[in-house]
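Notebook, p. 212. Picked up where the previous page left off. The plan for this session was modest: take the two constructs that came back from the sequencing core last week, fold each one, and keep the raw output in the notebook itself so nobody has to go hunting through shared drives later. Recording the first one now, exactly as returned: residue sequence, then the structure token string.
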Amino acid sequence: MENSFQQPFKERFIKNITIEDFKVVVSGVIVSKNENSFLLDDGTGQITITGLRCKLK
């Protein structure tokens, strides 16, 4: 039986994220944060995460 399940997210380093990537998972260290966003660093680059549905504490 063929496995038709596909993972909805792909694990990526920040430096490898491209415009074609739609659902990605990254992990790293929060460098800075404010009420609506934070800056994440994974050692290969940094990315700003915005539009959260919850407040950062």
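Okay, moving on. Second construct, recorded in the same format:
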Amino acid sequence: MLKIDVNLDILEKCISQIDAMKSGWCKKSRPSKVGAGRTVTEMELLADCYEDLYNSILKLTDNTIEYFRNLKNSYEELDKNTSIG
């Protein structure tokens, strides 16, 4: 059986780096709608797309952090159980 070699210190460091990077992102508030017409409507649609994209990236980043934390915990638990049993 092959051994899976995971450096948990590096994994924790990378998790922390991703989390720190994410915490540096600041959501910009949308400017109030001024004017009317097709250009304003198109700009509002574009702003909606950017807002959706921003929220999706945040969710993806949160899920990535959670995945790697669970992976790290799983390896630590497996290592603990292996050393006991």
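Notes on construct two before I forget. The two ends are 18 Å apart (CA to CA).
Flagging for discussion at group meeting.
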